Amino acid sequence: MSPITLRPFRPEDTDWLVEQHGLQYAQAEGFDASFGVLVREILEGFNADHDPTCEQGWIAQAGDTRLGSIFCVRLNDRTAKLRLFLLVPDARGQGVGARLLAECMGYARSKGYRGMQLWTHESHRAACALYARTGWQLGDSRPVRSFGQDLVEQIWSYRF
User: Fold this and answer.
1) Which CATH number belongs to the domain containing residue 100 in this structure?
2) Strand intervals (E) in the chain
3) Which of 57, 110, 124, 129 is deepest in the core (most CB within 10 A)?
């Protein structure tokens, strides 16, 4: 396999990212098509009006093969929001997720954010374990019905 690199997200990555989120979450957790719709809305909003001085997305890839993504967007003047963290199954267990998370957090810190926040589901156990290992704190957890499934929604935060 080629060396794994992280590069900036480009608008032409949008369709791949929507497809992968839909596919991965349908297979792993039974999410319905509404999840892909949400991902497309998030990406179209990012493509249309993100602020490149304080918001960025990254794609992990090996050669020409995309392996995953992560985004840092403004929640407010003091807090960044981590979004669209994804790894394809072949990329898991190789430290790619940790690299993406470190890149995103380092970027947020370098842009003057004082902390970060993210929204996820308890069922994303590997990601939640990574957040806990890197100092994120689970702040809120509640049962919800989303994407055709009964889930436990979580809000995690990190302070620099």
Assistant:
1) 3.40.630.30
2) 4-8, 56-62, 65-74, 79-87, 115-121, 137-146, 149-159
3) 57
